[in-house]
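Assemble and predict.
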Amino acid sequence: MNVTAISPLAPKGGFPDLPVIDGVAFATVEAGVRYSGRSDVMLAQLCAGTSIAGVFTKSATRAAPVLDCQAKLGAANDGGAAIIVNSGNANAFTGKGGIEAVDAVTKAVAKVLDLPQNRVFSSSTGVIGEPLAFERITAKLLELQGSLSPTRIKDAAAAIMTTDTFSKGAAAQVETGDGVVNIAGIAKGSGMIAPDMATMLVYIFTDAKIEQALLQDMLATLTDKTFNCITVDSDTSTSDTLLLAATGKSGIEITAPTGAFCDALHGVMRDLAHQVVKDGEGATKFVEVQVTGADTDADAHKIGMSIANSPLVKTAVAGEDPNWGRVVMAVGKSGAKADRDLLSIRFGDVVVADKGWVSPDYDEARAAKHMKGDELLIAVDLGIGAGAATVWTCDLTHGYIEINADYRS
Amino acid sequence: MNVTAISPLAPKGGFPDLPVIDGVAFATVEAGVRYSGRSDVMLAQLCAGTSIAGVFTKSATRAAPVLDCQAKLGAANDGGAAIIVNSGNANAFTGKGGIEAVDAVTKAVAKVLDLPQNRVFSSSTGVIGEPLAFERITAKLLELQGSLSPTRIKDAAAAIMTTDTFSKGAAAQVETGDGVVNIAGIAKGSGMIAPDMATMLVYIFTDAKIEQALLQDMLATLTDKTFNCITVDSDTSTSDTLLLAATGKSGIEITAPTGAFCDALHGVMRDLAHQVVKDGEGATKFVEVQVTGADTDADAHKIGMSIANSPLVKTAVAGEDPNWGRVVMAVGKSGAKADRDLLSIRFGDVVVADKGWVSPDYDEARAAKHMKGDELLIAVDLGIGAGAATVWTCDLTHGYIEINADYRS
């Protein structure tokens, strides 16, 4: 297998046309942090008045840039802001030097763009445990500043890739009643960069005007329904970062945590989350796991993730085997409330098990046919309550082993 | 890959010579439950006065035989007892019919051996979701009874295999001061039987005399240090069963939950647990994960299992890559208390990371050499407390994918 081949699950149309978000400009550069022959640093400049919200990995061994971003959230939003991201080196597990590198980069960006340093957010993704050659980034800041453009978001999506097999973008236009607002986002996902784990980085921009506390609230709520509902291999990066910036340049203010804007933002986040799964290492199938009838939503989520993370379920999907026994096993081990004799399972629209027993109508040939598709549904009803959740995952294939075992640092 | 090839980690000497345990007799038979051309039912008859303890899967979707065993533990021990096990069909997720099958088998054994039914324990392992053809088992009971022999434990170990690549046994002799007692145990492990998950079944016998409550206490304590510290792929069977029977025939009574007997039992259980890991699906490396310096023992166990279950760590091991970044990641995601800047990591005796940073003495060539061995050590010190735990796992290889994805039902 060629580990740089584009995922078979990549969107057929390639990178989407993303709208310009008024108040944001992008630049990218080849800084040679680790890679050569490709851009590896992206800078996003945000206009004065931009609100920024963020969510981050919950890892106890978070990387220095993550800790720095968390500390800066909620800083006064009357000045401008910036986001600087490098690929090739994650600046994780780099001790005191890692903190100094973040300080050096964000200080230099602040100086070049005339911003307070506490409004400069940074992310790093790539190898961990190696010092970040931050001077390669700071040496390029004037060049980056000189090429800032509102139309370069596609380049930004490419610069943050590690071994992602395709660059990821999504957008929405929202008719609010007061006028149109735009949302555009980019992400990097579960491509592996030897010798380290995949990292998810997501940056979403809107020209809506939204107060920071509300923006943070929206982001946290929608993350729980999108990025916190995906899994490739159950492993968690030390660098996962999601930043959402609202420039306010449309002049249209969003004041409620529900409604058309929120729905559109939800859609953009779900789209990006799905693209991350679709670029999962070695993925050949995209799987939606729908759990209903659980005791609580939290139980439903726990069961969904137990199914989505089960190596035996994931290898069954890879083998196109409608192996409902493994789904029962994953429900059982989840720790959530379950009653074997109330459990029902569907693959696509084929009822496999009904109330704890093989359905009398079970048609294995139809179930097997569903498993041959690119996009599969595993639906589980616990039959004990109203708790529900949907999560997404991919299959576990030889490609995953090749990328992570055979591809040596 | 030939999925029936013997694991490269199998004990070099083959199945060990197990001592006869006075008070236990074994028989096996070809009942054709699912397999043909091999024995698939084993019967163990236990003398009057035998105490029986048990631990079981914590799955919420436990199979019918497990629920039946749990209900019978602690029954009066003045009569004899029996254990009957079939391979080929797990009698799991089989609805009401599953309960009836357990009742039919244990009732028939009770009749043939003249025992109370509540002293007949059964296990089943194999496909799930298919009715157990229990009449094929009951039809063979007289034949089984006729061939009961104290020396047939090796045959019993073979009869309970599914797609295990080797049969598993371990034994110990203990000098108690009052005289010698014997312990002998058999197990089946993480061999896969399409289309289902692996199941662990373990039966241990001793001629020591031990009151049931103490026996149960010992078994639970030692299980937490052995079988609850192993993982192949984080998936949990609906049928895992471990029974420990003390016949009392040596006339030597054990009255304390510590001492030479307990140590020897611990050794037998650890040996069998290691053999289960060494027969993990596709395993080519046996990995001991030692965690020290954690806040609590429970945290240390959580961190150890997070490392041992991490697909990224397990593929790094498969690739012989001393990828300590993935170990940091697994510590971080475990949910246990950790401080990145106090963390130290060793591969074998090679210090890789020290206090949150690559060790100045790190010798990657020596670490890489350690990774080439069959049996590896990953040692993590959290540097924050006295909590410690050791767990064992195997690598994640193409063999695992082949067995579980390519090998179709």
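Residues 95-113 of chain A form the longest helix (19 residues).
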